[in-house]
């Protein structure tokens, strides 16, 4: 089976009346250092008439900034992405090296410890005796412990729970446990950041293997001489070819897929993701997608 995978991701906002949208920031473009090769990418928005510009922020995220010159009653974003999901070992080619503290202002934002509550400190203290000293092994073990302790819950409410609440509830969304990992890593003296992205993975349906796609969140830790290594706190595994990072940030809100102001109104959100294997790149060019104004 081909390793080329196509994802068409539609995000559709509907408003109960015409509204004025402020600048909408869209963080749905794979990062430049994504280890999963990106073969093609396109972003489109509707209704027509929007202005769109791209900018890279200090964290390395490439975001689209969209602004409409008139009121709108709907706002749709479509991403058309093709990646090469050839499997790789996340630790392949990572050299040994001594621990170092990041000195730049950007890295310091990832290093400054987040306030540690009694519940968070108690959880970390309970984990410490079973954490190896070697950095990669240490965070692999901590990742397993979080995945075992916190039951996954698909939580539709916006925002991220404080780590102590995630621990008290013993369940949480991917973004809740990813943030917990970031907070714990910083308490251990490591730089860590929150990641939002796509998770593409095989699933079994009716005895056949298909693909699933979803927006996901995980943590990255800056390890001694190795660079940023991703930890999926939902599965307890390392982030690999199925993890396509879209944005990283020192706090979860700054990695949200779409942000922006709008008039007070009632809004509904529909999200659709279609994912499939491709025989070759020519197949992607012949698949028709709904007409959406490209800008």
From TrEMBL:
InterPro entries per UniProt: Bac_transglu_N, Papain-like_cys_pep_sf, Transglutaminase-like
Pfam annotation, one family: Transglut_core
Superkingdom, taxonomy of origin: Bacteria
Domain Transglutaminase-like: 166-235
Protein known as: Transglutaminase family protein
Species of origin: Acetobacter vaccinii
């Amino acid at each position: 089976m081909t390793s080329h995978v196509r994802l068409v991701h539609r995000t559709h906002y509907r408003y109960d009346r015409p509204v004025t949208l402020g600048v909408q920031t869209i963080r749905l473009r794979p990062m430049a250092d994504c280890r999963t090769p990106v073969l093609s990418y396109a972003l489109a928005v509707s209704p027509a008439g929007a202005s769109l510009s791209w900018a890279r922020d200090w964290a390395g995220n490439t975001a689209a900034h969209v602004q409409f010159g008139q009121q709108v009653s709907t706002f749709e974003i479509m991403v058309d992405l093709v990646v090469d999901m050839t499997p790789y070992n996340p630790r392949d080619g990572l050299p040994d090296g001594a621990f170092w503290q990041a000195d730049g202002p950007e890295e310091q934002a990832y290093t400054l410890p987040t306030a540690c509550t009694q519940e968070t400190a108690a959880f970390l203290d309970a984990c410490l005796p079973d954490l190896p000293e070697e950095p990669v092994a240490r965070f692999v073990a901590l990742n397993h412990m979080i995945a075992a302790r916190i039951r996954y819950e698909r939580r539709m409410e916006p925002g991220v729970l404080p780590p102590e609440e995630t621990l008290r509830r013993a369940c949480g969304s991917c973004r809740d446990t990813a943030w917990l990992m970031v907070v714990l890593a910083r308490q251990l003296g490591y730089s860590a950041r929150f990641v939002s992205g796509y998770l593409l993975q095989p699933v079994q349906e009716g005895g056949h293997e298909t693909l699933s796609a979803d927006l996901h969140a995980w943590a990255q830790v800056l390890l001694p001489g190795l660079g940023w290594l991703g930890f999926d706190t939902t599965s307890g595994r390392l982030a690999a070819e199925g993890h396509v990072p879209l944005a990283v940030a020192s706090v979860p809100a700054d990695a949200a897929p779409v942000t922006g102001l709008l008039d007070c109104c009632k809004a509904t959100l529909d999200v659709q993701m279609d994912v499939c294997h491709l025989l070759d790149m020519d197949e992607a060019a012949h698949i028709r997608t709904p007409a959406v104004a490209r800008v």
